[in-house]
Specification:
Layout (H helix, E strand, L loop, with lengths): L36 H34 L2 H22 L7 H30 L9 H31 L4 H55 L6 H37 L3 E6 L4 E5 L8 E4 L2 E5 L3 H9 L9 E6 L4 H7 L6 E6 L2 H9 L1 H6 L9 E5 L2 H7 L5 E7 L14 H10 E13 L4 H13 L3 E7 L2 E7 L19 H12 L19
Parallel strand pairs: 5-6, 5-8, 6-7, 8-9
Antiparallel strand pairs: 1-2, 2-3, 3-4, 9-11, 10-11
Length: about 525
């Protein structure tokens, strides 16, 4: 009897159709690698490590730059993180269709991620600079672009996971749990490194724009090298050529942007601040820009893109802030904030001041206030007065360590309360500490934000000051609101024995109190550290 011969099985044409390609055997011997399996797995996991670090840098860069440009870091971080996590899930689902071509798909995803993520900071800054965020038809341009970049980066990061899972299984099949554990371990450790590298290496040494562009270049090189080097045989000749050309194009774009980044920043600053920019620096706290101030031109100080002080109208603000609080005993004065020296200037004009402590967070602003010829002339060299002592540290922490009953006047010249970094400086706990350092009969004055345009913010500040045990007297100067406070009901007037202000009178103070009272929003609860109540 002659046995019939079974027909030969068809020749596998794709790695998933080869023996072991579906998990039937522990290894896929048909997949030719230029290195041993163990080395190949190590290289894939190393690629996962680097790509995860780059992905987290893109994420942190979007949060940081959005916070610098648009303020309210809690809102910006929430938008970026929630949109990005959502997009990662969508990207993972979409990448299932690419798993049959995992190597080519991963190479394309990394090239796109490097381009989008690397250029995201420059794109966001450009839209903010040339369209602005202060009104008009393009007022929401930066916010829309922030969501768009978060969505695109999240989609591409999410697409990495299933493709990498397929690639690592092609090298050596193992149980799904073990492969996921290896992949996520490399991913999370890479995220840790990227998260630490961004604030401690990239931001201080390279800056937002250059650091993100170089991160994109690293992402391109690692992703392209992994696919073209390790999985070269998995690609057709045409796919290899296209992937190589696309990676070179991405590198050319990112490299050109690095070379032009200084010119771009200058052009963007001129678009934002005009052509009269004299000083532009990024301190450890914020971006500081000085415009004008020489040859009779008005001086403006911008912090993170917002006007902090201008020589044309700062006197109206600082006299309204300081003079009512200086009515009464004032030998010892504490100025919280005011690193520009302008509030200290008004305090020092009063006779009988023996000591002024200025506590400001940003040492860069203090240096400018002392050394810049225009700004130091505007503040009358107040910070160099022998009666003035300057501390550059966190205001809240400094106040916790201050001795009780040490000051007769406390002047709070701080950023607006809606800024997340300043919210704790407008809390009930903060004003409780301020009350502790005030001597009996001492007075506190607080810059409480706009009265007309944001009355809820203003009256929340007033409610919070009252909750700390003060009696309050709110008043305004234009749209700028202030709260004068003491243990007993304070009197809103000028000291008849004090210096004569140039922009404030008893009548204007009384009118400011009436104007503020007309905007009152009753029943607002105080803001605390655990329950901040200032919203944009």
């Amino acid at each position: 009897m002659i046995e019939s011969q079974a027909p030969a099985p068809p020749r596998p044409t794709h790695p998933r159709d080869r023996p072991g390609g579906n998990g039937d055997s522990p290894s896929d011997s048909s997949l030719k690698l230029p290195v041993r399996q163990a080395t190949g797995r190590f290289l894939v996991l190393a690629g996962v490590f680097v790509c995860a670090a780059c992905g987290l840098v893109y994420e942190l860069e979007l949060v940081a730059l959005a916070s610098y440009l648009m303020g309210d870091s809690v809102t910006q971080a929430s938008v970026v993180l929630s949109v990005m996590v959502f997009a990662m899930g969508i990207g993972s689902l979409a990448a299932k269709r690419l798993c049959r071509h995992a190597a080519a798909g991963f190479g394309a995803v990394e090239a796109a991620l490097a381009l989008v993520g690397g250029c995201s900071a420059m794109g966001l800054y450009a839209v903010f600079a040339w369209t602005g965020s202060w009104g008009g038809p393009w007022a929401h341009g930066p916010h829309v672009l922030l969501v768009a970049f978060s969505l695109a980066v999240g989609l591409l990061i999410g697409a990495e996971v299933p493709l990498l899972m397929e690639l690592i299984q092609r090298i050596r099949r193992q149980d799904a749990g073990g492969a996921v554990a290896d992949l996520f371990a490399a991913d999370y450790v890479g995220a840790l490194v990227g998260g630490l590298a961004f604030p401690f290496l990239l931001l201080p040494f390279l800056g937002q724009l250059t650091g993100t562009l170089i991160t994109g270049a690293v992402n391109t090189v690692v992703g392209g090298a992994l696919v073209l080097g390790l999985f070269r045989q998995d690609l057709t000749r045409r796919a290899r050529r296209l992937l190589l050309i696309s990676n070179l194009c991405v590198l050319a774009v990112l490299g050109s942007a690095v070379l032009l980044v200084d010119d771009f920043e200058r052009a963007a600053r001129h678009a934002m601040y005009g052509s009269d920019v004299r000083v532009a620096l990024q301190t450890d706290v914020q971006e500081v820009v000085l415009t004008g101030g020489l040859d009779g031109r008005p001086l403006d100080l911008f912090l993170d893109g917002r006007l902090r002080a201008g020589s044309r109208d700062e006197l109206r603000y600082h006299e309204a802030l300081a003079y009512p609080a200086m009515t009464g005993p004032h030998p010892r004065v504490l100025v919280l904030g005011g690193g520009d020296g302008l509030a200290a200037r008004e305090v020092l004009r009063h006779h009988g001041v023996r000591r002024v402590d200025v506590v400001a967070l940003d040492a860069g602003v203090v240096r400018l206030a002392r050394r810049d010829p225009a700004l130091s002339a505007l503040n009358d060299h107040a910070l160099d007065d022998p009666r003035v002592r300057v501390s550059t540290t966190d205001v809240f922490d400094w106040l916790r360590r201050a001795p009780p009953a040490a000051y007769d006047v406390v002047v709070c010249d701080l950023p607006r309360p809606e800024a997340t970094g300043s919210t704790k400086l407008y809390s009930q706990e903060f004003y409780g500490l301020a009350r502790r350092v005030l001597a009996p009969g001492g007075r506190l004055v607080v810059h409480a934000g706009p009265v007309v345009s944001r009355p809820r913010t203003f009256w929340t500040v007033e409610s919070t000051v009252r909750a700390a045990g003060f009696r309050t007297l709110p008043y305004s100067r234009g749209d700028r609101g202030f709260v004068l406070a003491a243990r007993s009901v304070p009197e809103l007037r000028l000291d008849p024995a004090g210096p004569r202000p140039r922009t404030v009178t008893d009548g204007s103070l009384a009118a400011g109190a009436r104007a503020a009272a007309r905007t009152r929003v009753p029943g607002l609860p105080p803001s605390t550290l655990l329950h901040p109540r200032y919203a944009r």
